[in-house]
User: What shape does this take?
Amino acid sequence: MEKYIMSESRNHFTGNKLPWNKNILGISFIRWLVKLPVFPYIFQFAALAFFILFIYYGWRQPIFEFNSASELLYRKLNITTFVVWGLWWTSMIWIAFFIGRAWCQVCPLELIMNLAERFGRKLGIPQKLLPKIFQNGILIVIGYLIVQFVVTTFHIHRMPHGAALFLISLGAIAFIFGFFFKYRSFCSFVCPVGILLNCYSRNAAFELRVIDEKVCNQCSTKDCRSLETYNKWNNRGCPSLLNPPKLNSNKDCLLCMQCVKACPHDNFRFGTRKFFKDIIPGENITIAIPLFLVIISGFLTYELTLNKEIKELFLAAPHWIGHVFGVENPYWKGFLKGLWTLVVYPAIIWLSFAGLYKLFSQKQKFSFYFKTYAIAFIPLLVSAHLSKSLDKWNKWLKGIALPFKDPDGVNSYQAIFVNQTLAEPGKIVAMSTLRWLPLLLILIGATVSLVKIIQTNKYLAKSTIEVSVVSKTIPLLMAFLISGIFLFNVWMW
Assistant: This one.
């Protein structure tokens, strides 16, 4: 009776007063869909079917010489490389930026992990939570770095067979962690794209939150976070062990909507909010976030450097090392390029500014700069990532029909490259035209990051933390430098 009264009270006085955009779950069809027993599993099984299909069409396909015209063409013709690297990876950046971790809701890896966990439990496997030492996100950073090194070294982003092996590896890792560990250990602490989604979803214009905190406070069952319902398929307590009523950030919520299903009072809403809301000055973050942002800043610098002369200049260091040591093997050349792009170059920038900061604020630890200011750079970095996705779509989407007509891409390759009976799809618009939108995006991202840095400085001024005035200018100078490099590279498109 108490539950009924609370639900009725909420619907009458609170829920109906929210504009539709503030509570999309208030739309009858959306709420009906989310409440279905097969949601989100029907979408996950569909995604798993495509996952298997992409492995099939990528398996044992032709392998071409690294950086050859054939390799660059074939990656856009085979459906596995086209979808995985041309559509999925790029779309995931935009989805995270606008909606949050919505991809996680339909991810086939979460389904594989879920099934493996249930299978292991049925066999009596003593499943545990991942050891605390690995719960700081460091495994995700290592996983992301490994993926990027495999890309630069073995070109799995251009090789369908390599992409198929990549998908198989992800599925196997998800199964193993689901089989031996519980509480979404793979999604929370291992998934190589988890930390990217953690960072980028902080910018999102949507959020899943409770409508009325009083209803949650009066609720006696706490179904949305109950461990008693964890093993159910539906109406479960949060599988990620979050506390939905206290949720104040998008960074960890996978939007599986189990809390929405479990709540007996319909006290959840999913709706719009301000962009960049979760970039919070003074947030206590683990070292994994700064490490990831260091890596991604180097990656994006390389990816936005499309001008051949500037790219040669950027890669002068690994090329010189390769020349000095007589490196001829293409795999080692790729490894050196990855080492410079993902580790050495970004580390030089971040460590230099962190060192200057430490010099003028000697009472603070060296890591203070990273843990305090790193998240303020997320808007700038996500704007650069969005810009790169526009570049890829511009180069790939004009030929979108080809990989769907000829999934393995062999016939299309023969027609274009060998027989020359079919024209190679070009760009949708000229790069000199396209560049204006990325320039605008990066300017917006840079502006927001500068504002967040200033807000962080104000937060420090109000706290008891002693930081010199000179030190407060250092992250601003670093933001100007990184954004300047991004803008220059895009301008040279």
Notes: The first helix runs from residue 2 to 13. The two ends are 65 Å apart (CA to CA).
